[in-house]
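Give me structure tokens for this 156-residue protein.
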Amino acid sequence: MDTYEVECMTPWMLNQQIASVVFSCLPEDGPLAVILDGHGQYWPSDAAKYSAMFSQSHSLEGIIARIDDGADPVIGDIDGTAIVASELVTKNGHCGYVVIALDGYTQESAVENIDLVDTILSLMSLVGGLIEKANQMQAVQMKNLNYSRYSEPCFN
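Here you go.
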């Protein structure tokens, strides 16, 4: 294994970090964004909006199943609100899924603006990749510091 390819965190921890960074940039009355790990864990940008939108009758399982079947991005509609979802990937692989609810947009208007929507979804994966790389660099630095602490000094 290459020293710089350190597996330093679980996808769950990475998703939590992605959510923290991305959601801090969203406006207060902005779109609802949800990051899911595929194992039942989810991180919504607004818990109240999430509960109202994705009640028992509107499950995310169908959206995730469509992504897993190869449709990426998935554009749908829940009660007149456009839903856009995609796989969240980094260099090291699949991290989960990202779902964005675009209040005030219809499914048709989301399709018309697919380039913008796809850019936003790609930027979320980019943020994930940058966080992942920063975590790897920190792990390598800590490993090197630990190694240098216990190695014998060389005096000539």
